[in-house]
Specification:
The chain is α/β, with parallel strands linked by helices. 43% of the residues lie in helices and 19% in strands. The chain contains 6 helices and 5 strands. It has a 5-stranded parallel beta sheet with strand order 3-2-1-4-5, with helices on both faces. Helix 2 packs antiparallel against helix 6. The structure holds 4'-phosphopantetheine. 4'-phosphopantetheine (PNS) binds next to strand 1 and helix 4.
């Protein structure tokens, strides 16, 4: 039996906490599809195609069973399209739990055949979030501990371009 999981998120942009979860999940499942939610209304820093391309570079060493895809709409529909029986989400701290529980229970109501599995982020990434990294970078702070190398570079370039317009 092939165990397939999706790991959905905004990933605007992917952090070291996300990458840590992807790495752990890649060891647990036969196929892992990282799902980038395409939500232009949120005015992301990187559009969905850019986020997919960045994540592909970050997970290149995890193996051919890990892929990245953008999606619109419901996570459970994305999971079904890929034949996934599992949704992976990362938990950094207790503060994540309430929202994640609500999401997991909603997804179970919508798709009882799909289970959400939670993976704990490594302790050193427990404080990291995409929005915090963007804020630190915006004010010139060092984000190299928070973001994978290609992401930190792309974020720096994006902020410099934005500052020029
Ligand atoms: O990285 P994020 O922003 O915490 O990810 C949230 C995400 C994308 C997993 C969640 O918003 C989501 O699943 N959106 C798709 C719409 C959906 O399925 N909603 C019902 C489940 S809450």
């Amino acid at each position: 039996m092939t165990r397939t999981a999706v790991f959905p998120g905004s990933f605007d942009p992917m952090t070291n906490a996300h990458l840590d979860v992807a790495r752990r999940a890649s060891g647990l499942f036969d196929r892992l599809i990282i799902g980038v939610l395409n939500n232009p209304k949120k005015e992301p820093m990187f559009d969905a195609d850019e986020r997919v391309a960045l994540i592909e570079r970050c997970v290149a060493d995890l193996g051919g069973h890990v892929s990245v895809d953008a999606f619109d709409g419901l996570t459970v529909d994305f999971a079904r399209r890929h034949g996934a029986g599992f949704i992976v989400r990362g938990l950094r701290a207790v503060s994540d739990f309430e929202a994640e529980l609500q999401m997991a229970l909603t997804n179970r109501k919508l798709a009882p055949e799909i289970d959400t599995t939670f993976l704990m982020t490594a302790l050193e990434h427990g404080y990291v979030s995409s929005s915090l990294a963007k804020e630190v970078a915006r004010f010139g702070g060092d984000v190299t501990a928070m973001l994978p190398g290609p992401v930190a570079t792309a974020l720096g370039e994006r902020l410099r371009t934005k500052a020029r317009v």
